[in-house]
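Example 3.2
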Amino acid sequence: MTEQNEFWLGYVPGATPAKWAQRWSERVTDVPLRLVQISVADQCSALVQRRVDAALVRLPAQRDEEWELLSVVPLYEEVPVVVVPRGHFLSAGEEVTYADLADEALWYPLDDTFAWEGAGGVPGAAQPHRPATSREALELVATGTGVTVVPMSVARLHPDPELVSRPLAAGPRSQVGIAWLAERSTDTDALLDEMVGIVKGRRANSSRGLRSQAPAVQKPPASKPAAKTARRGTPRQTSNRRKQPRKPGR
């Protein structure tokens, strides 16, 4: 279980928590945020085993029993890209279609989360061996032995001058969301509620934010101004000098 005086946020490859970490540091100055990268295969277990307080995850096409223990808020979707060796004929166009992949050997990683069933199935000819991760699939593509399909952010995370990526037309999207243990309620866990609010775009001055929950500093009552003491008028001083007689007019 994580410590109460810090908050641990897990994130899968391709997710970019930097901007949310910056907002956290601006709003929650007394509780440090710890970022830890987790694999797609381990994303659910990391939450269930309480190794992280919340995580940026890739939502799977089919959820198992562990996912039933989590609360999940979808955040955004990513475009799938086909990654091929440089010089491959598929790199000549601006995008790749399912028909283009019909005869291509496809490396289909185990951490794939695309909903292929709703898109007509996995494209191409899936290889019997399935690499454990998308990164391993990219390494196999670099050897010139096939192609793969990964989220765009994952392809950008592992740049290789020998690889080229093109969007897969009408392909299923990869959905990224924030997840946490369902038994931890955002209504009672202020830090968790703040993190969920940050990634959802809640403003700093929101009524649900930590700032609004801070006790207001009460100002002491203003003291009444002291009554002014009336000044007594001082007698007018008369000059001891004698008035000079007027000169007679001419």
